[in-house]
Amino acid sequence: MIPTLFGVAVLVFFLLRVAPGDIVELKYAGVGAFVSKEAMDVERAQLGLDKPLWQQFGDWMWGIARFDFGASMWTGRPITYEIAIRLQLSLQLAIMATIVAVLLSIPLGTIAALRQDTWVDYVVRVFSIAGLAMPSFWLGILMILGMLIFFRWLPPMFFTPIWVDPWANLSQLIWPALAVGYRYSAVATRMTRSAVLEVLREDYIRTARAKGLWEKLILTRHALKNAMLPVVTIIGLEFAFLIGGLVVTEQVFNLNGIGMLFVEAITRRDYTMTQALVLLVSFTFIVVNFVMDLVYAWLDPRIRYQ
Amino acid sequence: MTMKRCSLRGRPLALVSVCMIALACMVIPAAMAAEQPKAGGTLDFAVGETPPSYDGHRETTFAMLHPLAPHYSTLLRFDPDKYPKIEGDVAESWTVSKDGLTYTFKIRKGIKFHDGSLLTARDIKATYDKIVFPPEGVASARKAYYAMMEKVEAPDESTVVFRLKWPSASFLAQVASPWNFIYKADILAKDPRWYEKNVMGTGPFTFVEYVPGSHWVGKKNPDYFIKGRPYLDGYRAIFIRDTAPRVAAIRGGQVLIEFRGFSPATRDDLVRALGDKVRVQESPWICNMTVAINNEKKPFDDVRVRKALSLAIDRWEGSKALSQISVMKPVGGLMRPGSEFAAPEAELTKLAGFAKDSEASRKEARRLLKEAGVPEGFAFTLKNRNVKEPYEAVGVYVIDQWRKVGLNVTHLPQEGGPYFADLRAGNYETSIDFACDFMDEPDYQLIKFVSGDKSPLNYSRYKDAVLDELYEKQGRATDPKERLKLIRQMEKRVLDEQAYQFHVLWWYRIIPHHARVKGWTITPSHYLNQDLRDVWLAPE
Fold first, then answer.
1. Model-level pTM?
2. What value of ipTM does the predicted structure carry?
């Protein structure tokens, strides 16, 4: 894990410096203000941008070694504080969207496989293809317009932690969770259907049926468990993506999440914030991959890691 | 209550008069009662960006000003109902010496900071010392505007004296700047950067909380120095970065107003959806779109080519077309049309590119291009910021206009980082540029046109000692007529004689808001009138 994160850190640090743009320029000239070069230089010095590159990198690495990610170059507030505010929303949304996706995709994919080429299969396929074709942000816009026009109501504008006010929390996050979860379920439904179809054609399923095992038992104990490996991969990767990748959905629902923070940090050339967020997302992918490996081993006891 | 129908039969005039009087008796008191400010309520408003730091002296974005201005006072302020009239905020009165070098302000007594301490002249001095003579390592965004200031003195608790090196036509307006929040001297003495992360002023609202990226909350200051104000119990600034959810939030009543501005299409949508529940305020805006030309690159180093580029653009038709889809509308020279410094239309139309006969202008443009040796179909690029409205809209219009004189221009919209990097480095041929200010003031609007080595806002890479001298002279001119003359000379040189760079159109501010929001008047700048002290909410 550490070599991977170090590689990511080196890459992101230098790639960001190669990209054209200057946070001080964006802050002042970006609003058309007349600010003297002297004032801009003071700002650059405060941000440490006047130091040589190797020194900036060394300072950052030394900070990370002590779990000190520094302060955002844009706001001056500690990065851990800025991320913590957004992470609870993004994490909860990712979990809720995953639950929606799992609840939809596994039953639908399995039913579609079991009823292959019947009207049930066609309905499920149309439902999942529609989910793939419709971007979640577009579905989100439709939801918002629908709520506004038909009910003259919109979800709350602020995030309230679920332990403070569960109703306010859910009435804000359920809509984006449904929008994102539907798109996410579409991928997982198709994967579940293919995997179940493939497993149902295996010799051991035929054998189970031949020895007179109960169909429900064949499906749950032998077919589904073995079909779940690719589905788990899809679900895991999508979950990791949701932590920082819901930029447009966050914009549509005005959610104060990691995705928006990411885009703002990049467009503002907030190096310290972007670096920390890239590390966070990389760390999430590493952890999710690790958990997926554990799940693989549980689903298929033949898999052993040495 | 029953109402009698007014009839015009019989004795029409008498009847009409009686009906009018009866109607007036019924309507006027009702209207007066309806307009009587009511205390209470919380104003929710949208802000399209999030504030960087909390320090008004350091920042330049409305995203800092809109949530924070209600916490602070300034020395003077622009009267929003009588813009550009200046009135005292913490200053009770002021005098100017005959030589224009000394400004003496009397401070109102009994003004309290939110921590209960009294505001004195020492706080004003410390504030202006930080803005004009910032200590080492402290960024002051507007220091360059106060080059005329020699020192600030606080001879007693309620008197502040500003001494200038030379008379300045803009000085009084500059101390009415909405950015110049009055800070507490003791705090600044301990830590000049304290205000970057903390709030403590004398404004109508005290600070409650800020959740980064989400919202900012303020509550009524019971000790505010104007008795009976503010009317509101508090306010919440909600950060909504994307336009669509911002409009939806207004439509759904989650926020009642957004103070920057919307496009005409959004205004029409909101009016259609909300009917008489929405009120629209509109005003010309002290912002403009400019075509920056790289004067160092061939063939743009030739004045004939630059002039042809300006002549090719029909601004009057552009105003009609672009005002349907964007915030751009007024046609003007270097100063905002409608302002006291603007060129009258008769004078403006004599400048290259501002004439109403576009065919004649284009003919002249073609002639100049031919004379300069620019071939038909000459290709170059117009760089732009990748913001649809108004940047890309004006870019597309300008390119279409240039095509009409035989130029083949490629539009290159860029993300903010590379866009500014290219402008600064001169890595462009032509580019869309812009400017926004808080007041109509030649010192502010003309600084963009002085030599590039003197103004970081001038990206067009030219040096012109004549312009520099004219700029300096107009800033020191104490006779308004003389000043106007100098401004006209500068305008003619920039736009007509040299055509170094030129404005396309000025912006037009449109604020559709819930009719419940009362006591707020639109001004030509989205930086002004943001302290919310006069705002109140009518019952639903």
1. 0.89
2. 0.88
